[in-house]
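Our consortium's second objective concerns turning raw sequence data into structural hypotheses that experimental partners can test. To show how far this objective has progressed, the report includes one record in full. It was chosen at random from the queue rather than selected for favorable results. The single chain below, 227 residues long, was entered without modification.
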Amino acid sequence: MGLVRHRRGLDPRADTALAVLPPGARTTRQWTTGDPAKADGEASAWQYCGGDPVGMVDDQGTWARRAPPPERPIRAKALRFAHQRIGKPKSIVYKWSHIDCNEWCVLAVSFFYDRVGSYAFNRDKYFSGCTQLYRKAKLGTWRGLRVVTSPKPGDIILFDKKDGDRHDHAGMLLRRRTRKTIEGNTTCEDGSHADYEYIEKKTRTGRFWDGSGGDGAGKPTFIRVTK
């Protein structure tokens, strides 16, 4: 028997026009009489539940054997969440962490991931600094954090903006090709509001990517969150 669709809650015997059958499909006696499905192979148990149609039939079990669609990576969920909060004040991060501090870039990243269910971040186990976050990721044993060399959107980016030997700023990679990021505790590019007070979308110059500025800036480190 083929796929049968039926509007839930209506008896197929009362209004057969609501039953939609694909070409070549056929119904069964159990369908036309409304009897509950029996273990005789005539129809799938999907057809009836307590004597009522459940809306679809898969008598060959192909739907049941079909694997569910893959879940979106946690980094994609965090990136979408972060993108929706561009232009929001730092108070939303402080409200989440219960901490008011000037260096809130890593808090913002922790906030983005925690709010989409990441196992690596939560309000009680957030990262207060770039060095702490880097060390955990470098070990590769902390709750799905690891350093990567081929970053993807949603990965965490740790900048070395000053002295070339330590990380001093964090953000989230939005687009690698155009060097777009989402960051907290940073300047506003268009001057629409005060610096260091809002979550911003940034375009980073080359010196922050390859250390070519000659001003002490080093190459960034990228961290992937897998759970």
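The partners drew two points from this record. The longest strand covers residues 218-225. The mean pLDDT is 75. Both points have been shared with the crystallography group to help prioritize constructs.
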